Amino acid sequence: MREIDLAIVGGGPAGMAAAIAARNKGVENIVIFERDSRMGGILNQCIHNGFGLHTFKEELTGPEYAERYADRVREMDIPVETDTMVLDISKDRVVTILNRGRGVEEVRAKAVILAMGCRERPRGALNIPGYRPQGVYTAGTAQKLVNCEGYVPGREVVILGSGDIGLIMARRMTLEGAHVAAVAELMPYSSGLKRNIVQCLEDYDIPLLLSHTVIDIKGKEKLEGVVIAQVDSKNAPIAGTEQFYPCDTLLLSCGLIPENELSKNCGIDIDPRTNGPIVDEGLETSIDGVFACGNVLHVHDLVDFVSEESARAGESAAAYISKGCKADDSTAVKVIPQNGVRYTVPSEIHTDDLLCDVHIRFRVTGVFKDCAIVIKSGENELLRRKSRILVPSEMLDIIIKQDKLAGTSDDITVSIEEV
User: Fold this and answer.
1) What is the number of domains present in the chain?
2) Which of 97, 207, 210, 275 has the least C-beta neighbours within 10 A?
3) CA distance 210 to 46
4) Of 301, 329, 357, the domain-final residue
5) How far apart are CA 110 and CA 92, in angstroms?
6) What is the DSSP string of 89-156?
7) Are 68 and 216 within one domain?
8) How many Å apart are CA 297 and CA 61, to the nearest integer?
9) Do residue 158 and residue 217 come from a single domain?
């Protein structure tokens, strides 16, 4: 059995950023396991620009952003084993891998970083009536067909869900000569970034139908059209609002799910609100020496935030390896979302002997205007920040100074209050 210091599962932006940060902290024996034939993850099919504004202070495409990190990984001589699937991780950090050339192997690591990313929610999870005709795709699948394979799925398109991938594909299909009839969104607000709504829909006169959903798919062998209806406050279709849209392509952009089968099999505690691991301020999971970062932890808006978070995971893993035990074995206080906050990452903080400031990232449950983000420990107010508007599509990142948290023993609450 091979012995290594740090095993990283996933060679996308999260895995590469974590590896670079760990190497910078002195970890020498690192291996990145990537199931694809090249590094970069989902970025390789995201040929639109808008990446890197925070990290590199310039606008890059997805492949350009990935190449920046891949070049750095190569310069630092960090081994990457591509075409290698991680099958299992044990609680004592034995990683079982399947390589195309070598078969099944086991690798023992001092620390493991989970960076597997996320997957799209498929049609089967949406409970849409109808047959299963040709022409129904997830937005990411269509993106790969168009950008990587050179195939245009169809010419008359309807998109269900206003996630960022769906918005971007509305523009992409239009540029390829297709007609996008509408983007239907179940919620009364878009789940995509405002800039994507403007640049991908409004600039191309593509209608965004809020509080609407697809209630029927027509066609048995090939897609013939969909029926869209308005929904009420309980998301139930309103009778009499049905409208038929003829189309040969339906793209589904209905959310992303962290890829956590490995995490669950390993016995890691999962947060039901994020579908990702429960972690502390160092992004360490409930199993000692196993860390999580990026979209496998919670779904991010921007890859720049993935890279920043993953670098912290790499540094925490390096500290664990150096110490030979849990980075901080003191008692942790809980971080509890309340009053309009859907979840927080981390879910707990070791407030004794903090070495740096703590990032608390979260999303709100709805649209809030003229409000304040309030973070408390018991009756002690740690932070209050006014905001003109908060929306679920934008992840928030609040930094709490370590001196504010030092010695805190009461649970920490994160909530939204009206101003």
Assistant:
1) 3
2) 207
3) 26
4) 329
5) 9
6) E-TT-EEEEEETTTEEEEEEEEEEEE---EEE--GGGTT--B---BTEEEHHHHHHIIIII-----SE
7) no
8) 24
9) yes
Number of H helices, E strands in the chain: 8, 29
Per-residue pLDDT of the chain (419 residues; tens, 9 = 90+): 899 999 999 999 999 999 999 999 999 999 999 999 999 999 999 999 999 999 999 999 999 999 999 999 999 999 999 999 999 999 999 999 999 889 999 999 999 999 999 999 988 888 898 889 999 999 999 999 999 999 999 999 999 999 999 999 999 999 999 999 999 999 999 989 899 999 999 999 999 999 999 999 999 999 999 999 999 999 999 999 999 999 999 999 998 999 999 999 999 999 999 999 999 999 999 999 999 999 999 999 999 999 999 999 999 999 999 987 665 556 789 999 999 999 999 999 998 878 789 999 999 999 999 999 999 998 899 999 999 999 999 999 999 998 888 878 899 999 999 98
Q: Is the pTM of this model over 0.90?
A: yes
Encoding tokens for residue 413? 């609450």
Q: Which domain holds residue 382?
A: 330-419
- Domain end: 254, 273, 293, which one? 254
Cα separations (Å) of 38 from 13, 84, 190?
12, 11, 33
d(CA 195, CA 206): 14
Distance CA 56, CA 358 (A): 23
Q: Are residues 323 and 236 in the same domain?
A: no
The answer to whether residues 317 and 334 belong to one domain is no
Residue 384: give its domain's CATH number.
2.60.40
Give residue 361's Cα distance to chain centre. Answer: 12
Which tokens belong to 310?
């993953």
* Same-domain check for residues 287 and 138: no
DSSP string, 351-379: -TT--S-EEEEEEESS-EEEEEEEEEETT
Q: Which two tokens stand for residue 325?
A: 């035990």
CATH (domain of 196): 3.50.50.60
